Amino acid sequence: MKLLNKTTLYFISVSLVIFCLGGILFYTFFDLIIDRDIAHKLNERKIYSLKQLEKTDSLLLYQKYSANILHLRLTSQPETTPETFSDTTIYDDVLEEPIMYRQLSFVKKIDGKNYFIQVRRAAIEHKSLLEGVILLEGLLFLAFVTVLTLVNNKVSKRIWQPFYLILDKIGRYQVDLAQSMVLPKSAIDEFNELAKTIETMTDKINREFNILKEFTENASHEIQTPLAIVKNKLEILLQSPDLSSEQMNLINSASLAANRLSKLNEALIILSKIENRQFHETTNLCVNDEIDRLYANLDELIKMKGLQIEKNYAQPMVIKMNTHLLGVLLENIITNSIKHNITGGNIHIAITDQTLTVSNTGEPLKIASEKLFQRFVKSNVKSQSLGLGLSIIKAICNTYSFYVTYVEEGGWHTISIQTDQV
Q: What is the pLDDT of residues 286-323, one digit of tens each?
């Protein structure tokens, strides 16, 4: 959830609680004010009725036409009977419905006669009052939320604009390009502090990346030179006369180790360059043509193992990527399909819907297939493989957001790469 939406949600939640509590207090005080007002009006009506009774007893006849606001009769109750306020419901002939009244009852002695008098005033029903309060509160709450959301969105977008600019800059930042991060200044101190911290951090990242890049390049160059010398010297030694079989075996083992170390160095360098995004140039390339070229180059090795190749190209597969990386990717896939195949085995290649699938027969895996994408992990520990081929494939696919899977089922090993490029 976005920060703006979460803030608005908190505001609405707190506002709802405040409005509910405010509604209860509003209802309580409003009801109290109405009761006090009715009591005051009834006392005024009481005083008026007593003044009229002191002049004449015609009120006894008038009460028939008083619309239920006055009731009096002669009584034997003493004048000291306490006044009482009460509620009553009287049917109204005009409205043809019962009406609630608040009434004041008292006894008063006038001209030697005791009168039981009730003065009434129509009262607002609590239910109607509650409904009115709830309706009013609901309308006010909806209006408040609408105005709050509109104002909050407009103000927040303006206030948070520097923050989104910083996010955009960070999203487009590429460490491999050694870009210098220059962020916009704003009127908000916190955003300026954030921008300053990010600029300092990216400067440090650039320096460390350049140091690491230089070290990798220098190390690979310095390692390759002595390795080439070692390999050359070993070849010269192998041509020396009068070597015993034991000496030849030792020299041959050293030569194999040097070759393995050279290949390992090259593989680690290519992995480092891939993960550091050092291959920027891209072009549209046809995967079908590159596969055909690689299998043609490996035709002798395929014949030596007696492998059968089956190709099923539903359509040309054209993807946009670095030429060198496509060659490395396909070379590792095809080399694996040949190297880890059985004698007289099969290789199936299919291209459909921008998906490349290469399947080959082979020995069952001794470890989980997903672990093979990790560095130096091999199904057979005795294999002469470096254990980096699938790691390189995975790194290249991650670079271009390709989806790669490895599945072993029924004696078939299948690598599938989905590009999602149109």
A: 999 999 888 888 888 888 989 999 999 888 888 988 88
The amino acid occupying position 272 is S
> Which range is most confident: 115-129, 355-369, 375-389?
355-369
pTM: 0.49
**Distance (Å) of CA 214 to CA 173, 192, 211, 220, 406:** 21, 33, 5, 10, 34
Q: How many whole angstroms separate alpha carbon 92 and alpha carbon 101?
A: 11
Q: Name the most confidently modeled range: 82-96, 118-132, 167-181, 192-206.
A: 192-206
- Does an H or E element contain 11, and which? helix 3-55
User: Where do the structural domains in the chain lie, given as residue ranges?
Assistant: 3-147, 191-275, 283-418
Over the range 137-173, which residues count as b (16 or more CB within 10 Å of their CB) and which as e?
A: beeebeebbeeeeeebeeebeeebebbeebeebeeee
Query: What pLDDT does residue 360 have?
Result: 93
User: In this structure, are residues 24 and 161 in contact, taking their beta carbons and an 8 Å threshold?
Assistant: no
How far, rounded to the nearest angstrom, does the alpha carbon of residue 383 sit from its chain's CA centroid?
Answer: 44
Q: Domain 283-418 maps to which CATH number in 2.60.40.10, 3.40.50.300, 3.30.565.10, 3.40.50.720?
A: 3.30.565.10
How many CB atoms lie under 10 A from the CB of residue 43? 13
Q: Which of 186, 143, 189 lies closest to 166, judged by CA? A: 186
Q: Name which of 407, 409, 71, 232 is nearest 417 in CA terms.
A: 407
Helices 161-171/126-159 angle, 10° precision: 50
Q: Measure the CA–CA gap between 351 and 418, rounded to whole angstroms.
A: 10
- The CATH fold assigned to 191-275 is Methane Monooxygenase Hydroxylase; Chain G, domain 1 (1.20.58)
Contact 258, 227 (CB under 8 A): yes
